[in-house]
């Protein structure tokens, strides 16, 4: 048995550590690993990270605070797709 799969999974974090040191500010350096964790959680849940982020950023302002947990990758459901008859 080898641990190649585990090492490949952690490679992105190892490469990101150097970038987080130069995030531009302390707040940016604190948020970068949080976003990386959320993106990895989306991948683990077989969700496209970009689609998840776009939807969350669009919906988060109108979401009541007691329902924010619905936007986490483990609870997120993609919005219903627009029927082709309504597409312009």
Keywords:
mainly alpha; single chain; 0% strand
Structure description:
This protein is mostly helical and 88 residues long. It is built from 3 helices and no strands. Helix 1 (4-21) runs antiparallel to helix 2 (26-44). The chain is flat and about 40 Å long.
- N-to-C SSE series? HHH
Number of helices: 3
Q: What are the low-pLDDT stretches, counting only 5+ consecutive residues below 50?
A: 82-88
Percentage of residues assigned to helices: 40-55%
Distance between the termini: 53 Å
- Tertiary shape: flat
Relative strand content: under 5%
Q: Give the biggest sheet.
A: none
**Mean pLDDT over the residues:** 79
**Overall number of strands:** 0
Give the radius of gyration: 17 Å
Query: Structural class of the helix and strand makeup?
Result: mainly alpha
């Amino acid at each position: 048995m080898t641990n190649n799969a585990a090492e490949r999974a952690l490679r992105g974090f190892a490469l990101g550590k150097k970038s987080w040191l130069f995030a531009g500010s302390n707040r940016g350096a604190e948020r970068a690993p949080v976003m990386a964790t959320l993106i990895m959680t989306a991948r683990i849940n077989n969700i496209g990270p970009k689609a998840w982020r776009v939807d969350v950023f669009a919906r988060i302002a109108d979401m009541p605070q007691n329902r924010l947990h619905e936007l986490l990758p483990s609870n997120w459901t993609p919005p219903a797709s627009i029927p082709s008859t309504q597409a312009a």
